[in-house]
Amino acid sequence: MSTQLHVVDAFTDKSFTGNPAAVCLLSEPADESWMRLVAREMNLSETAFVHPVEAGLSLRWFTPTTEIALCGHATLATAHILWNTGTIRPEEPARFLTKSGWLTCRRDGSWIEMDFPALMPTPMPAPRELLGGLAVQPQFVGFTGCRWVVEVADAESVRRLRPDFQQLGRLEVARVVVTAASDVPEYDFISRNFALASGVNEDPVTGSAHCALGPFWQSKLGKSDFTEFQASARGGVVKVSVRGDRVLLGGQAITVSRVELLA
Questions:
Q1: Catalytic one among 46, 151, 202, 228?
Q2: What's residue 1's pLDDT?
């Protein structure tokens, strides 16, 4: 029996930009080894697997090399597919049971809003591997427990980064987001995200990183609502609203292809 996967570009309204994810709609749980093989075959930063459970849907995310506990763009892609295929009604929220707890997505016109946990970075001394891998002078270095957050002096420094991935890969937790205030009026800040611990050198647009970026920039700018541009080669836009211990992430998505698995 064949299985269909939907490939979605997330955090964008234009094909071949944003962050691509594959979404596999299942009627029941699948064998984990099969999911890992499918994710490796798709070779995207994340492949999402979703199936019904009591009170919602189970959602798991796999990179080509590992399972991860939280993923924004593949959650956005999954909600987009659930509504577009009629699996759930347009007015119905998508509720996902994940390794990071319950996550909820809601539609707002052409945008999808995701409710994620806030993760304020704690100031920390910069590890030698971090400084050597980025080769920049940081304004701030913090750690959330699962990701390093590095602020640099200006947006152009973020765009010009050419990391030494071998050095960054030596970090005990090799996930790093680099950010700066925006130099254009349509965005509040920009960022780039390096996810070597998940087998991805640079992730095009990273929803989960904004769980830390939102609280960080709230403390810097004294406001709670932002529009951000992730300045990877593909690029993407994320709306960020900090609400206490939660962060609301907004993005758009577009389906670009469907893949039929015969194995």
A1: 46
A2: 61
